[in-house]
Design goal:
By secondary structure, the protein is mainly alpha-helical. It is 61% helix and 7% strand. It is flat and about 85 Å long.
Length: 421
């Protein structure tokens, strides 16, 4: 896993932060004393070191970053009329010596093997991996450890608020969204892996699915199991299905609005096509929801088993519920492959509806009039937006078994437009 460089900081934004934190920043006498190079005994410059260390941490915290560019810190952040503090090289070195600064090479690569990570942590404990005594001139990216620890704690807190189990498995996209910046996410993940609080997951099939298992309690994680990979695949599947449902919802709303607009303009042929499309989308949504509910049921049963703190039992129950609900990774993959094959299918449906004369339909004009009255009330705000659940057709209601539900789902995939409106 690579990590992107930290974003450049706006000098005006930094200046505003500094002036807010240091009220006498423009005082010439105070500035002259602060900008001098360190000399003499440590006790002589210790207060100035604490001042600059704390100010660097405060600025980075306000900027929302835990990785900074050394060149920006030394030459841009604290510049006053072209003058920069002469002591910042020493400040950064002292912060490194005290453990407040980490270098990227000191963090564990999350994608490295479990054995390597264990040996690396053991080596750090016994001094096998010694830190460089000095920050090299080539070290541009510096990691502020106190802020990195805060970010890691915030990630665990966020996950703990949404998971009641001792561990959780999430996709890499979800982890990055919690960290807000992909570059910061890589650094936070490396730190958590180094502490034994997280492990990187990767399912390498046709598509590479990346994820993270995180410990939400004080104890470290145990070795990754095959169940963790299955859970990652299921979680990734729920996210993808939810994305498709969101696309359907947006198209449903758009179809309803276009139907009302066409009706008000007197174009009943176009209005009819939009009504038909919205009904098809609503029925398709019900079938997607069925599969999503089944996947979430499996995840819920696995989570319930994990809560007993019996790993063996959790694995056995996880396998059992997957058999009970007759859902497998291959089945999920088949459905997702089917989705990708029908990206252009809605265009064909639209074309067929456009060529269909209004008289060829079994829908009466009075029914359309009634449908438009409902639409008009909805869009004018006089009624609440209904849930996107339309009654299923009789043949869909009869599909009570998982196999029948999967078959009806596949039959309607060609009616979906999976491109965002």
């Amino acid at each position: 896993m690579g990590s992107s460089p930290p974003p450049s900081s706006s000098s005006s934004a930094v200046e505003e932060i500094v002036r807010r934190e240091v009220l006498d920043w423009d005082d010439e006498v105070a500035a002259t004393a602060r900008f001098k190079a360190f000399s003499g005994q440590r006790s002589d410059w210790e207060p100035r070191f604490v001042f600059w260390r704390d100010l660097i941490l405060k600025v980075a915290r306000h900027l929302g970053v835990c990785t900074v560019r050394s060149s920006e810190v030394k030459n841009i952040w604290f510049s006053r009329e072209g003058l920069t503090p002469l002591c910042l090289d020493r400040v950064l070195q002292e912060m490194y010596n005290n453990g407040d600064i980490l270098l990227r090479g000191e963090l564990i690569d999350p994608s490295s093997g479990h054995l390597y990570q264990m040996l690396r942590r053991a080596g750090q404990l016994i001094g096998g991996f010694r830190r460089s005594p000095k920050i090299g001139d080539f070290e541009e990216h510096l990691i502020l450890k106190p802020l990195l620890q805060e970010s890691a704690s915030n990630v665990i807190k966020n996950l703990a608020e949404n998971h009641w189990t001792s561990t959780c498995v999430i996709t890499m996209n979800k982890f990055q969204s919690i960290c807000k910046r992909s570059g910061e996410a890589s650094t936070v993940l490396s730190y958590l892996c180094g502490c034994g609080k997280a492990q990187y997951l990767s399912i390498r099939k046709e598509d590479i699915i990346e994820g993270v298992k995180v410990s939400l309690v004080s104890s470290s994680l145990t070795r990754i199991s095959s169940l963790d990979n299955d859970v990652l695949h299921l979680v990734w599947t729920t996210e993808k299905l939810q994305q498709q449902l969101n696309v359907i919802d947006n198209r449903w709303k758009l179809s309803r609005k276009m139907a009302l607009t066409s009706f008000e303009l007197g174009n009943k042929q176009a209005a009819f096509r939009c009504i038909r499309q919205s009904k098809m989308l609503s029925e398709s949504r019900s079938k997607y929801t069925l599969l999503l509910d089944r996947v979430e049921k499996v995840l819920s049963n696995i989570a319930n088993a994990e809560s007993t703190k019996k790993v063996y039992e959790a694995i056995q129950i996880g396998v059992r519920v997957m058999k009970e609900y007759e859902i497998s990774m291959d089945e999920v993959k088949d459905h997702l492959d089917e989705l990708d094959k029908h990206v252009q299918a809605q265009k064909e449906v639209d074309e067929s509806l456009e060529s269909m004369p209004l008289q060829a339909s079994d829908v009466e004009e009075e029914d359309i009039e009634e449908e438009f009255k409902k639409l008009e009330l909805e869009l004018s705000g006089e009624t609440h937006h209904p849930r996107l659940q339309e009654p299923l057709a009789p043949d869909v209601k009869a599909a009570t078994s998982p196999q029948a539900a999967a078959q009806t789902l596949s039959q309607t995939l060609s009616k979906l437009n999976l491109e965002a409106a």
